[in-house]
Amino acid sequence: MVKKKILRSLNQVRGEYREEEELASQAGITADELREEIQDLIGDGFVIESSNEGYRLVKIPNRLLPYQIQEDLHTSYIGHDIRYFSEVDSTNEVAKKLAEEGASQGTIVIAEVQRRGKGRLGKRWLSPEGGVWMTIILRPDIALVKAPLLTLVTGVAVAETLQSRCGLDVGIKWPNDILIGEKKVCGILTEVSENKGALDYVVLGIGIDLNVDVEDFPRDLKEGATSLKNELDQEIYGVEVVQRFLENFEAIYEEFEKGQFPAILAQWRRLSKTIGRQVEVHKKGHMVVGEAVGINRDGALILEEEDGTLIKVISGECVHRPL
Ligand code: BTN
Asked: Selecting from 2.30.30.100, 3.40.50.150, 1.10.10.10, 2.160.10.10, what CATH number does the domain 278-320 have?
C-alpha cells in the first residue's frame, strides 16, 4: 500500500523534511504520483508541509484509516482486509453482507460513525464520532452451540488491551460489558449465522467509547457510561488501541480454536467484576437475584440465591447491586 510506505518514510524523520525524489523512490512511485498521494493524505486529515526541501509530516489525524491501522499491525490474518466507512448504519450489518458474499475470516469493518448502531437485546447503540465501532468476520470450525463463547473470548481481549493501555480499573461485567470502575466503556454484540444447523460465520461487533464525550449522551445512558478520554482526561490515539486489540484478539482466538477455552475462562474470571457481587439478572418479564458465585464452561452465570439455591443463568441483562 503506497500511503503506508509514504507515511513510514515521513515518520522515520518525523518533523523533518524528506526530499521529494527520495520519498517517491521509497514508495516506488513517480514524483507526480507522490504529489497526488500527498494530496489524498492531506484530504484524510494529515498535516504535511511542503517546501523546496521536500515534505514533512506535522500532524497525524486521530481517525481509523485502514492504512494507518495496517502500518504497525502484527497479526497473521486479522485486519489484513479492512473495510472502512466514515459513516455507516451498522458495521455488524455490513459485515453480515460481506460474509454472505464470501469475505474471508479476519476481515474487519470499521466506521467513524454509526447511524443505527445495534446493542444487545434489541437496544440501540449510540455511535458518535470518537468511538471505535468495529466488526470482525470469523469462520470458526466449532459447533454452533459454542459460538456464544466468542463473546467471552472477545471480552478478555478488549479488557486486557484497555487495561494495558490505560492502567485503570478495567474489568468485565457478565456477559460482555467492559467496565472502568462501575461504568461501561465497551459493549460486544456477537451475531451468528447458521446453515442447516451448522455454524456458517460469526460477526463480532465491538463498540469502544474511546474519545466519546459521554456528557453529550442522553440522561438515561450517561449515568452508567464512560469513555477512555473521560477517564484519562486526554484524547487517546485510536489506531494504536485497535492495533493492540486486534493482536491480542488473534492470539486469544487462536487459543480458543485450539480448544483452550478453559484457560481463557480462567482469565475471564480474573477480570470479572461480577463474580462475588450481588446481582439482578433481568429477563423477559422476570428477574433473578443472588450472589454471582461463578461462571461455567458454557458461559452461564451461577447465582446463589438467598436460601443457598444455586441457579444457572444463560442470558439476560445483569445489573450489579450497589456495594
Ligand atoms: C451492547 O449492547 O453492549 C453491545 C454493543 C455493540 C456495539 C457494536 S459497535 C460495532 C458493532 N456494530 C453495531 O451495530 N453494534 C456493534
From this structure: 2.30.30.100
